[in-house]
Design goal:
By secondary structure, the protein is α+β, with helices and mostly antiparallel strands. It is about 35% helix and about 25% strand. The site of manganese (II) ion has 4 residues, from loops.
Length: about 375
C-alpha cells in the first residue's frame, strides 16, 4: 500500500511536471486511467478510479468504497466520490469545460468500450488525443524516495532467495518451492509477489516463463527461480538458476556464458547509452560461446510500481538510458530438451554506470 510519502518531499509535484508536457501534446486536460499512473501522480492506491488533470486543478473520481482511503492517501488532487461510475463523472466534468477542448487519454490502457462511453458522456466538443505514454515516461526516472523503496524491495527478494535455497532438494515440487518463496516474501514485509512466481526444473527450465507444476525436483537437473516482491508499492524481480548435483561441462559452460553476458551488459550501462546497445553487449558476449542463438528474449525492462515498465531493453531500442532509471538485466540461454539458464538482477543507472539493487549471490550453486 502506498503512503503519502510516495510523493517527492521537495521540488515540483509530479502533477506539475506532467502539466509541462500539455503544450507538447497540444492538450488542455488529461484523463489518467492506468491505476499505477494514478498512484504515482496522486498517491491513491485503490483499485477503481480516474484522475482528471486540468491546467489549474486535478480531481480523483472514485466511489464510496474508497471515501476514507482516498482522504488518507491523496495529495495534489481533490477527491470526488461518484455514484454512477468515474467515466460518467469525468465525462460530465469535460462537458462542463468551455469551448473546444483537447483531452489526452491513455491509448495503451483505456478499452475501446471505455473510450466510447467517455466520448458519449463528454459530448462532441472534446477532441481526443493519445497521450503518448506521458506518465510512463515520467515514471521511468525514479526519485530518491522511490530508489530507497526499490532498494528495499530488491533486498527483500534477495533475502528470500537466500532463505529458500536450502529447501531445494530432490522430492520437493516446483509448487512447494513457489509457495515457500511467496510465504518468505510476506515474512520480509512484502505485500505480495510482483508476479506469479516462476519455478521450473529439468528440461522445463527451457520454457522461459514456465508456471510451477507438481513435478518433483530430482537429482542432476537445473532449477530456475524467477520471483519478485512488492514492498511499499515498488517491485523487485530476481532470477537465479541452480543445479541439483554436479553439473555436466556443457551446463557449466552455459552458466558461464550467461554470467559473462550479464556482466557485459552491466558494463555497457551508463546515462546516454541506447537501450538497444546494452542488449547487444549481452548478445556479443554470448556469441563468444556460440550461444547467441539460444537467447530468445530481450535483455530486460524498466521496473517500478509495475514489474514491466519503460524502458524496454531489446534489439534496436533507441531509448537513451538516464540516471535514475531502474532496469532489469536478465540474459538467458534456453535449449529444448536440455534446459535453460537465466540470471537476472535489478540495477539503477547512475552517473558511474549500473549499480546492483539485488544482492543475491550469482554463484552457480550445486545443491
Ligand atoms: Mn524480469
Amino acid at each position: 500500500v502506498a503512503e503519502k510519502s510516495t510523493q517527492p518531499s521537495e521540488g515540483r509535484s509530479r502533477i506539475e511536471r506532467l502539466r509541462f508536457s500539455f503544450s507538447d501534446l497540444g492538450i488542455d486536460a488529461l484523463v489518467v486511467s492506468n491505476l499505477p499512473d494514478i498512484l504515482y501522480l496522486c498517491g491513491f492506491s485503490g483499485s477503481a478510479g480516474l484522475l482528471l488533470v486540468e491546467h489549474s486543478r486535478s480531481t480523483l473520481f472514485t466511489d464510496s468504497r474508497y471515501t476514507f482511503q482516498a482522504r488518507a492517501e491523496v495529495s495534489e488532487a481533490r477527491v470526488s466520490i461518484v455514484k454512477h461510475g468515474p467515466l460518467a463523472a469525468v465525462g460530465s466534468a469535460l462537458r462542463a469545460m468551455r469551448g473546444r477542448t483537447r483531452v489526452g487519454y491513455a491509448a495503451s490502457h483505456l478499452t475501446v468500450e471505455q473510450k466510447k462511453l467517455l466520448e458519449g458522456y463528454s459530448g462532441g466538443r472534446v477532441r481526443w488525443v493519445p497521450d503518448g505514454n506521458v506518465v510512463a515516461k515520467l515514471r521511468c526516472v525514479k526519485d530518491a524516495g522511490e530508489l530507497s523503496r526499490m532498494k528495499g524491495a530488491a533486498l527483500a527478494i534477495s533475502e528470500v532467495f537466500g532463505t529458500t535455497l536450502p529447501l531445494i532438494r530432490p522430492g520437493v515440487t516446483e509448487l512447494d518451492l513457489a509457495a515457500e518463496i511467496e510465504y518468505a516474501m510476506r515474512q520480509q514485509g512484502a505485500s505480495g509477489p510482483a508476479f506469479e512466481t516462476i519455478v521450473a526444473s529439468g528440461p522445463r527450465t527451457a520454457w522461459a516463463h514456465a508456471r510451477p507444476t507438481a513435478k518433483p525436483f530430482s537429482k542432476n537437473e537445473l532449477v530456475l527461480i524467477d520471483c519478485g516482491a512488492i514492498l511499499h508499492a515498488y517491485c523487485s524481480d530476481l532470477t537465479r538458476t541452480v543445479f541439483l548435483g554436479r553439473p555436466p561441462k556443457k551446463v557449466r559452460k552455459m552458466y558461464q556464458a550467461v554470467l559473462d553476458a550479464q556482466e557485459a551488459a552491466k558494463q555497457a550501462i551508463r546515462p546516454g547509452v541506447k537501450a538497444g546497445d546494452v542488449d547487444r553487449a549481452a548478445r556479443v558476449a554470448l556469441k563468444l560461446y556460440g550461444m547467441a542463438a539460444f537467447f530468445t528474449h530481450s535483455l530486460g525492462h524498466g521496473l517500478g510500481l509495475e514489474v514491466h515498465e519503460m524502458p524496454r531493453l531489446g534489439r534496436g531500442v533507441g531509448t537513451l538510458l538516464q540516471e535514475g532509471m531502474v532496469i532489469t538485466v536478465e540474459p538467458g540461454v534456453y535449449i529444448e530438451g536440455l534446459g535453460g539458464i537465466r540470471i537476472e538482477d535489478d540495477v539503477v543507472v547512475t552517473a558511474n554506470g549500473a549499480v546492483d539493487l539485488t544482492t543475491a549471490s550469482r554463484e552457480f550453486f550445486e545443491l
